[in-house]
Design goal:
This protein has about 150 residues and is mostly helical. It is built from 6 helices and no strands. The protein has helices at about 30, 50-60, 60-75, 80-100, 105-120, 130-150. Helix 4 (about 80-100) packs antiparallel against helix 5.
Length: about 150
Amino acid sequence: MVEKDDHVPWPDHAYVPGFSPRHSPEFFDEIKMTVPPDLPADQLHSTIAFRAGKQYFDAGFYWECHEVLEVIWRQTRDPSPEREMVLALIQLANARLKVLMRQPRAAMRLCDIVDTRISRCPDDRAILGLRTAELRGLISEARAVAKKAIQRP
């Protein structure tokens, strides 16, 4: 069960390209505006945008997760562990979305990319409130879901 933050607006459905209607372009604007341009990278995970992205991911709203985490990604330095971590989460959401779009092989390739991103992050501390071990667990879950989808006739 996903614990929902009262400050995070929830769409009435998860958007899956080719399978469900897309949300209005303005739906996520209010969330994205919660990331001040001068916020230090190590505090980005405290924003409503980051919390929304993580909650959307946990609830299976993968396209929505990607949509709101882009504003976090744009505010990270390149290269930096924060950038690698948020891109890993975005690409992991994309992997899960690809399975829903019936493209499990693309999902497997995205999991490989996420593995590479996570390998660039230190294991000894949380980055944006996330630990690499947590992401590795999510990668394993995504691979298992994709593998099962590949094996279906």
